[in-house]
Amino acid sequence: MTGDWVTSKPLEALMGVLSSSFAIVSAAGFMFLMGIPFVSQVTVMPFLALAIGIDD
């Protein structure tokens, strides 16, 4: 990180993390409300969504 707000872009990184986090929470809540059973293999999904959200 640099001291320059234009080149460091901390808010852009924060928005990528927040939008991915909100998507994960809302998807999990919707699946819970619909009665979809929990499958343990799905636990990797938040990490993939965060990685894609931060990368883009």
UniProtKB/TrEMBL annotation:
Main location: membrane
BP GO annotations: endocytosis; molting cycle, collagen and cuticulin-based cuticle
Coiled coil: none
Organism: Wuchereria bancrofti
SUPFAM superfamilies: Multidrug efflux transporter AcrB transmembrane domain (SSF82866)
Lineage top rank: taxon: Eukaryota
UniProt protein name: SSD domain-containing protein
Family that this chain belongs to: Belongs to the patched family.
Record keywords: Glycoprotein, Membrane, Transmembrane, Transmembrane helix
Pfam families: Patched
Transmembrane segments: 20-39
Protein's membrane topology: Multi-pass membrane protein
GO cellular component, one term: plasma membrane
Entries under InterPro entries matching the protein: Patched_domain-protein (IPR051697), PTHD_SSD (IPR003392), SSD (IPR000731)
Keyword Transcription among record annotations: no
Compartment(s) where it occurs, according to its Swiss-Prot or TrEMBL record: Membrane
Domain SSD: from-to ranges: 1-56
